[in-house]
């Protein structure tokens, strides 16, 4: 009996990934370190002074981590309920945080008990930050108010009640010590000047605002809310410069690198997108395990820290630059040592001893070898194979059709299996490389399960999706044929004109020759 030959899966060429300087740079981070916190990480903030420790706010605690430490080097836990938005002052000596009990607490990094407590909000405070003069704090809460506080006297300077929904994000200008910005769930971003009694600018973002960011120059403002990241020109009265829609879910956090040339955005779709601030195009992307709530980049771009909804802190460090000094390790054999003799061609007088190669068959090949057609089809209808390697599923269907057992493999399936099968066919039938096989599969499924149409709402819905997909593809093909006909007409016209010009040139040449002969 001849040996079983495995199913041949048609290999399709893939586009090579474009390697850019950004790709090489952002890939230069080590494998991430995972740290488990007590709750969802709502804020990460790096100290602006060496050694660049970072504060992580999660649940009712604030943990201070060293650059390379996996355990907190300090903990602030004087909160009755959840803590929010722990932020460093520019000199790295003080830390301010809001809380669920509406009290703002100010901590000294070297101590444990709060230095000051600011009471004035009536609901949870999610936003706390320092103005650039280092002596005032601004805050925003769920009571729709934005307040300004004096640190030495622990008193409220002014309160703004212009937002009509929760105030959840904000930032201060590094250029002007009196200017700060707040973002709210009322879809607006407001710019306040401490010298005035009302906001000086209102920007309509269009979605609940989750994060705002000012460029170091103070002229450009970035807001994030919904799936959009928008860049505004503050100096032109809040004119919209660009609107970016590269995420699939709500954007929750923003961050700039140390040079201000790259903008990072984190989202609930588990991705961190990196944009160039000159072209505002995505130059790189990171993928994470769960939804992202907070993001921070160290002042020297050496560390990326991402906080997620499941309480996991993901820390990536840059790989150290390779030195040109000679390595002290033992020298390894050259590559040619390992491949020596592989290209040798045996001579006629040589005696060759062949080593049997053990062939490992995949699950569907083993089932096909045992003539279990239905089980082989089930094996390639598993979600990982259907999603990532659909060519394997189609190859097995083609093999079953060649054997004449495809109809029997498709028959006798329950509602869940038919739904899975129709979902795959409806999604992939429009791909040219799969169309010949999947059209045959669709015909057989329709013939087999036509008598039960109307008995299951789920199966009926999938049949309608298949019909819609095929109808759209037929419409596209008709439009393409029309365009092809127009192009053929144009090409025919150009060819006719060219032939006419050539004939005229030939006739003119003959006339000139005849006239020359007559003159002689």
Automatic annotation (TrEMBL):
It is found in: Nucleus, Nucleolus. Keywords: Nucleus, Repeat, rRNA processing, WD repeat. WD repeats lie at residues 118-159, 244-285. One of its GO terms (cellular component) is nucleolus. Residues 344-490 form the U3 small nucleolar RNA-associated protein 15 C-terminal domain. SUPFAM superfamilies: WD40 repeat-like (SSF50978). Its main location: nucleus. GO terms for biological process: positive regulation of transcription by RNA polymerase I; rRNA processing. InterPro entries: U3_snoRNA-assocProt_15_C (IPR018983), WD40/YVTN_repeat-like_dom_sf (IPR015943), WD40_repeat_CS (IPR019775), WD40_repeat_dom_sf (IPR036322), WD40_rpt (IPR001680). It holds the Pfam family WD40. Ribosome biogenesis factor. Involved in nucleolar processing of pre-18S ribosomal RNA. Required for optimal pre-ribosomal RNA transcription by RNA polymerase I. Part of the small subunit (SSU) processome, first precursor of the small eukaryotic ribosomal subunit. During the assembly of the SSU processome in the nucleolus, many ribosome biogenesis factors, an RNA chaperone and ribosomal proteins associate with the nascent pre-rRNA and work in concert to generate RNA folding, modifications, rearrangements and cleavage as well as targeted degradation of pre-ribosomal RNA by the RNA exosome. This is U3 small nucleolar RNA-associated protein 15 homolog.
């Amino acid at each position: 009996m001849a040996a079983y030959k495995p199913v041949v899966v048609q290999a399709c060429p893939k586009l090579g990934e474009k390697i850019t300087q950004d790709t090489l740079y952002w890939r230069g981070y080590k494998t991430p370190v995972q740290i488990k916190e007590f709750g969802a990480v709502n804020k990460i903030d790096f100290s602006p002074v060496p050694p660049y420790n970072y504060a992580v706010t999660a649940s009712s605690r604030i943990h201070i981590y060293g650059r390379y430490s996996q355990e907190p080097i300090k903990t602030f836990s004087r909160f009755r309920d959840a803590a929010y938005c722990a932020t460093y002052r520019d000199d790295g000596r003080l830390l301010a945080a809001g809380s669920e009990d509406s009290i703002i607490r100010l901590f000294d990094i070297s101590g444990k008990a709060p230095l000051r407590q600011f009471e004035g909000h009536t609901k949870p405070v999610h936003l706390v930050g320092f103005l650039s003069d280092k002596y005032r704090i601004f805050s925003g809460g769920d009571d729709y108010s934005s307040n300004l506080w004096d640190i030495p006297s622990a008193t409220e300077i002014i309160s703004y009640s212009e937002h009509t929904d929760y105030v959840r994000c904000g930032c201060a200008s590094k250029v002007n010590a009196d200017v700060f910005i707040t973002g709210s769930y009322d879809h607006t971003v407001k710019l306040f000047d401490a010298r005035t009694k009302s906001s000086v600018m209102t920007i309509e973002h269009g979605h609940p605002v989750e994060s705002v960011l000012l460029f170091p120059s103070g002229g450009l403002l970035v807001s994030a809310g919904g799936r959009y990241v928008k860049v505004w020109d503050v100096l032109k009265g809040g004119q919209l410069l660009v609107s970016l829609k590269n995420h699939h879910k709500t954007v929750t956090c923003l961050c700039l690198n140390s040079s201000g040339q790259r903008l990072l955005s984190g989202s609930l779709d588990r991705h961190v997108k990196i944009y160039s601030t000159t072209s505002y195009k995505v130059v790189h992307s990171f993928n994470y395990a769960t939804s992202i709530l907070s993001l921070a980049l160290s002042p020297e771009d050496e560390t990326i820290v991402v906080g997620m909804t499941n309480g996991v802190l993901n820390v990536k460090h840059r790989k150290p630059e390779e030195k040109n000094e000679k390595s002290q390790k033992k020298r390894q054999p050259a590559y040619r040592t390992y491949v020596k003799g592989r290209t040798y061609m045996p001579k006629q007088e040589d005696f060759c001893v062949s080593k049997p190669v053990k062939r490992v068959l995949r699950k569907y090949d083993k089932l096909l070898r045992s003539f279990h057609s239905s089980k082989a089809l089930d094996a390639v209808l598993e979600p990982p194979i259907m999603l990532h390697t659909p060519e394997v599923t189609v190859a097995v269907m083609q093999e079953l059709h060649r054997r004449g057992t495809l109809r029997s493999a498709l028959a006798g399936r329950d509602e869940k299996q038919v739904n899975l099968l129709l979902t795959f066919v409806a999604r992939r039938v429009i791909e040219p490389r799969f169309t010949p096989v999947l059209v045959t599969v669709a015909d057989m499924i329709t013939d087999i399960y036509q008598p039960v149409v109307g008995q299951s709402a789920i199966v009926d819905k999938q049949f309608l999706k298949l019909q819609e997909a095929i109808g759209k593809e037929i419409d596209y093909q008709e439009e393409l044929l029309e365009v092809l006909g127009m192009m053929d007409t144009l090409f025919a016209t150009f060819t006719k004109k060219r032939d006419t010009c050539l004939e005229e040139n030939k006739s003119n040449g003959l006339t000139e020759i005849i006239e020359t002969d007559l003159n002689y």
